Structures are given as structure tokens and as C-alpha cells.
Amino acid sequence: MNTIAALKDGDQLVFDQVFYQYHGNVYAYVLNKTNSLYLAEETTQLTFIKLWQTRKNLNEELSLFTQLFRIARTTMIDLIRKQNNNELHTRQLTALNERNDVWEKVSERELNERMHASLKNMPDVRRKVFEMSRVKGMSYKAIAMELSISVKTVESHIYQAIKQLRHLITLLLPIIFTFS
């Protein structure tokens, strides 16, 4: 019985013999072509897996050596293409993330600039009350005591400041989402 016929019949012992006989040759072939230990190992393993999976399709008129190295060559090419596609996708995602980071920084900077400009346009007491509450974290009661105004006046100034800033943010949202 010849080797190909035995493989077609699913003879595990013959497959083991083929594996031990050709494993080193396939590995050396791929390593020589790619200079990559990883690709040589992967291709060699996948070659023998594919040989076993497609054993029923082997041609008894061609040498096993020829058929095995065809499998190895196509497997190697497939792995190289896959690796190149993965690298290309990684580069594209990195570039896209970098562009998004730039737009986020621009949008954030523009929002901060407009917010500071809006704060500067507020009446002095309202701006001071807002900064004491939101920046310094002071309570309404502490602000009222320090500025000698009522707590209700502090609440009113905070409400008006937030209303003014909310209007600014509403105007900026279409700009921000355009660049996102």
C-alpha cells in the first residue's frame, strides 16, 4: 500500500511517519522564505493539519512531497497576507485614534476658551459666586457669608451662571460632534 492511499484511508501511523519525515523540511522551507520563526512554526503546524483534513483529496499520481509543499506554500502565503492585513488595520486604527485625539483636544480647548470668555462676560458677582462654588467647592452658605449676601442670592447667581453656560454648551455641541 502506498503512502497516499494509506493517508486517504486515515492511517494515523502513516500520517505520523509523514509528519516526522517532512516536518523539518517544511519548517526549514518556510523559515528560509520568511526569516520568521513564528511563521515557520505556524505554517508547519497548519500544513500538517490541512494535510490530515484534506487527505481524501490527495492525488495519487503526484508525489506526496509535491502536494505537501503546495499546502505549505499556500498556507505560508495566507498567513503572510493575514499578518500584513492585521498590521495595516493596526496602523489605520492608530492613525484614526490620533486624529480623534487631535479633534478632541481642539474641541476641548475651544470649549474651555469659550467657557472662560463666557465667565468673563458674566457680571462680577455672578462670576465670583460661580467660581467659589464650582472651582473652590465652597457651600452656598459659606459664599453668602464671605460676600455678605443671602443664600437665596447665591442660588440665583449660580442658576443664572449655569443657564448662561448651558446656552453656550448647546451652541457648541453641533461643532463638537461634527469633529468627533
From TrEMBL:
The lineage of its organism: Bacteria, Pseudomonadati, Bacteroidota, Chitinophagia, Chitinophagales. Residues 21-84 form the RNA polymerase sigma-70 region domain. It holds the Pfam family Sigma70_r2. This is Sigma-70 family RNA polymerase sigma factor. It comes from Danxiaibacter flavus. The keyword Transcription applies. Belongs to the sigma-70 factor family. ECF subfamily. It comes from the Bacteria. Keywords: Sigma factor, Transcription, Transcription regulation. Transmembrane segments: none annotated. InterPro entries: RNA_pol_sigma-70-like (IPR039425), RNA_pol_sigma-70_dom (IPR014284), RNA_pol_sigma70_r2 (IPR007627), RNA_pol_sigma70_r4_t2 (IPR013249), RNA_pol_sigma_r2 (IPR013325), RNA_pol_sigma_r3/r4-like (IPR013324), WH-like_DNA-bd_sf (IPR036388).
